Amino acid sequence: MLSTEGARGLTHPRVDKQAGLPAGTTSYYFRTRKLLLHGVAERLTELDLGDLSMMDERSDRFERQYAGTLGLARLVMLSGTEPYLTRTRARFELILHAHRDPDLAAIVSTYGAQFYSRAREVIARWYDDPTVPAAQIEESAVVVLTFISGIMTSFIHGSPVITDAHHLDQLIRHLLAR
Question: How many CA within 13 A on the CB side of residue 55?
């Protein structure tokens, strides 16, 4: 609902109806609309971080398929396909709404920091050189994540600028090589 109706379209009665719950169930658990949005943000964070952890586990078992920048590219490409696209749209709605709600901003920020940390680890492994200054790795992480954010925005808009994980991997590697 959040991804299609926006933050204003997310109401207790609509959630009850969509979920097939008795009237009043959602408002029992989330007393206010603000708490409902916070609950959605926490659940999205939980789901997304679970997916990130799964990617980490896969990279340990299936190194070639999910490791490094290709694993990151595959994760980004998933965000443009259902059911992940719905989550991506909902996450962006929450990000926009968070500017008016500091508590929501804190929840959204927690997710962003953890995603950044994982992406930074991938980038540090890509360099695979202990002499590379930490500042260069940080700068590369910012550049790559800004690029990825633009790609995810194109998914939300419905006009993907990248449609293949291998192509995205090549572009990420090109950015890192500069």
Answer: 23
Cβ(150)–Cβ(115) under 8 Å?
no
Q: Is the whole model's pTM more than 0.85, yes or no? A: no
Angle at CA 157, nearest 5°, toward 151 and 162?
35
Both tokens of 137, joined, read 């790795």
CA-closest candidate to residue 74, choices 172, 175, 174: 172
Amino acid of residue 87: R
- Mind listing the pLDDT tens digit for each residue in 13-51? 999 999 999 999 999 999 999 999 999 999 988 888 777
- Kindly report whether the peptide bond that precedes residue 83 is cis, defined as omega within 30 degrees of 0: yes
| Sequence-ordered alpha helix ranges (H) in the chain | 2-5, 12-19, 25-29, 33-61, 63-66, 68-78, 84-98, 102-127, 134-157, 165-177
Closest listed residue to residue 1, CA positions, set 133, 119, 90: 90
